[in-house]
Fold:
Amino acid sequence: MSLIRRQFLTRAAVAGTVLGAPVIANAQSARFNWRMTSAYGKGSPFYMDGPGSATDLAKRIREMSDGRLNIQVFGAGELIPAFEGFDAVRAGTVEMNHANAYFWTGKTAAAQYFTAVPFGMNFQGMNGWFYDGGGIDLWNEVYAPFGMVAMPCGNTGVQMTGWFKKEIKTVADLKGLKMRIPGLAGKVYANLGVDVKVLPGGEIFPALERGVIDAAEFVGPFQDRRLGLHKAAKNYYTTGWHEPSTVSELLINKAAWDKLPADLKAIVTNASAACNVISEGWCQKANSDAMEDLIKNQGVIARPLPDDVIKALKVETDKVLAEAIKDPLTKKVHDSYFAFKAKYDRWSEISEEAYHLKVRG
Structure:
């Protein structure tokens, strides 16, 4: 190589290093101000306030990024109505929304599987499917046509069947019942003659108290007590057949997501995973205390649904799922979910179930 050519290449390399440095520095110093809406009201425990909530998630992201990604959080009704987060993120009106994917089943039936499936997997099983069974990849495949990405950022664990003004003794007692219940479970109940209503959390108690509805499902002992549902109905059914594990969704506009540098994407992903676990842990403590109070001090009667009612609900669930998987993409998600569940169930039988039956007692 000639001396002149060596000098030219050396100078080019130095110039490239000097010119490249500001690009890297700019990427690492760029600041982003985003907005995140929620399907739940400002101050709502678990969803908007406390460990693993939307505000906790935003705080973790801000602190982990040293303020480079600042997220302003809005409760339901502050910026948009409770159930318009999907459209707002899709349009780019906001960058993020914090809710539950099953609210969007009218947009895509497959969304249900990323929140809860009746007679489906618990918290451990869902996380196994999400993080190591391809669940999150499928989630993003479902949302790709809408220009969005998503990930789990919270979990209530098993939920309660709900509050009923009258005792449920047989399947016939469900016919004509007016009940607040979202998601696939609503379709299942409808098949058994229930008049299904979908109401935001803040509207449930007045509707139940005034007799606009006869029964209501929300979350679990702590959240339900906070809404005062035990003051409007005393029959609390504990069999969480409809939502054995209920996932909170962080929904993100794909165009905005693509503008984030890799380290900020990693921060959002890891903060969401942390909130997913932390929120479920908070629920275990909060629900333990609240259930004890409801039974001991509030006159609540807690019991599982009768076996014949559970069997009827399972039959109708199978019918509803069979109808849903006529859509090819929903079937793809369904098949992945239940293939993972089959393996997880076999493991759970000799691990978790064995513990509960043989050791815990």
Q: What stands out?
A: Confidence is low (pLDDT under 50) at residues 2-10, 12-19. The first helix runs from residue 3 to 29. The first strand starts at residue 32 and ends at 38. The radius of gyration is 24 Å.
